[in-house]
Amino acid sequence: MRLKSVSFKIAILFLVFTAVFTLFRSSMSGIFSLFYAKNGIPDANISSIKSFQNIGIIFGLLPAGYLADRIGRLKVLTLSSLVIATSFFILILFRNFFFFSTAELLYGIGLALNSGTLLAYVTDLQEQTNGDASNYFEFNHINRWKYWYLAIWN
Question: Using CA atoms, how far apart are residues 76 and 64, in angstroms rounded to an integer?
């Protein structure tokens, strides 16, 4: 019964974080559009810039599964975070159509690398622990924080 309880908690935690991430991503689209308008980009060009995110998602989904299997899921999740962070740095540093489009393309690639890889990693974590996190991590003070870090950020 305890194994089922821990698996259920991991699944609920994953669903909550997925919902929060989806809400963040949806709200960021509107915020980015306002940001582009404030920086003098015409409405027609804002739509073009936003289309680069979808193109990036398509390009990012193609190698995501292969990379996750080849170099490891945690490394791909780290790469995803770095790509998204790079896109934000581009938005901060540059203020023209070309760089906004590049940032959106990178943002889409980062989102795509994250999407299936995160679900596969959570599934692997459940399989490795047989649904019981205490089998995998010793619950002392330090390892408890490591477990929550992995559950939240990876």
Answer: 8
> HSE (CB half, 13 Å, CA atoms) of 139?
5
Whole-model pTM: value is 0.71
* Residue labelled with tokens 């962070």: 85
CA angle (29 as vertex; 26, 31 as ends), nearest 5: 115
State the helix-helix crossing angle for 43-71 and 2-38, rounded to 10 degrees: 150
What is the distance between the terminal CA atoms of the chain, rounded to a whole angstrom?
A: 26
Tokens 């919902």 belong to residue: 19
The span from the CA of 108 to the CA of 150, in Å, is: 23
Rounded Cα distance between 120 and 78, Å, is: 14
50-82 exposure pattern, b = at least 16 Cβ within 10 A, e = fewer = bebbeebbeebbeebeebbeeeebeebbebbee
Q: Encode pLDDT of 97-114 as tens digits.
A: 999 999 999 999 998 988
